[in-house]
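Minutes, project check-in
Item: structure for the 436-residue chain
Input as provided by the requester:
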Amino acid sequence: MFSLADRMEPGRLLSGNGGLGWGFIRRFLNLDNSLILWDEAVRQAVEGLRPSDSGDDNRDVEQVPLTKAVGRTLAQAVCLDRDEPPAARSAMDGFAVRAEDADENRRLVGAVHAGTASFPEVGLGETSKIMTGGTVPPGANAVIPVERTSVEGNIVSFSIVPEVGAHIRNAGEMGKAGREVLEKGIRIGLGDVGVAAGCGADPLLVRTRPKVAIISTGDEIVEWTKVPEDHQVRDSNRLVVAAQAEAAGAEIVMSERIPDQVEALQEGVDAALREADLVVTLGGVSMGEKDHLPGVFEALAVEKKFHGVHVQPGKPLWCGSRDGVRVLGLPGNPVSAFVVFEVFGVPIVESLLGLKASSSCRLETGVLEGTARSKGRPLFLPASVALGDQRMPLVSPCSWTGSGDWTALAGATALLYLPEETSVESGSPVEFLRLA
């Protein structure tokens, strides 16, 4: 057993020098006893939100044409509707032959192009011209590339002896009818559209977009289109969080600015709870005299999951729910709001969509360019990502002066993640969260 005084020698408090670190001291003194760890906070935020997997719950699905499907979440798997290819096809331009035929010179009996519906039968001593994608005619079991042949009249000479199956795509080689090619719960990408079209799957059954309501609070907030007075701030947070929510797959059904008045906040939040699947408030959740939202949430019977997270930025985050609607009370500082919604809000949207891969699991590994350091709490820092010399992502922290420095978001394509009390030098491996 040791006392804190036993650890107070000079130089012992810095992480990496054999010391405890300020984060440890805070926990030792129970200064952060009310804070939840950030990864546990993500788990609680998304708990119980995934759509029904019963197969008979179609309340949260809709059909969309393939032309509108990119970025949507697939609600029903897509399968091959026939063997692919349905018949043996040529993989090259050339001549279809019987591989066991020993004749070097063979008589040309016809031609098969892609889309040809009737085919000449190829017997011994015979060959048929065939184009890439053409159906291999009866009797043939190999294709000789055109560059290994010569033609005089209707006689074709070959410079190689083919093997059975050479340059042929066999029937069912890509898959048999019924094979699942697009999994339920994926976010539909560009290539997925082509796969679905190849299966004749149009329209697609997708998850409806989760409805998100966004409320910014504060007497100092004005519309971003206005010229603010010195005591005012443009409402950039509401616009940024809306963009983040839409990029994650949500639909914005309410976006309002409400002053720091309890009655107005209560009326606005109550209306949002009736309209949305996720209510996001901006500001008003910390310890200030006008931070009314925790009391408003309580008055509206929103059940609190947690208030305060062991993370930087974003410590004052509030999370709760009412009648299945999730509520996130974000800090009002711009970098805090941006980071917190990306780390906690995006996984909520993706869970509501039933996505197979959640944002809470998409930390990637890269190499740091520059230096970075965290102190008392784990840190998510705006950063940019480029491809480095070793084909590894190169992560460059954005310059910032604190969570109120909204200029730090310029050029950000990722969030650099550092555990608490961590100092990282250039060239070291780091983890990062790639932004949508």
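Outcome recorded: The radius of gyration is 31 Å.
No further action items on this chain.
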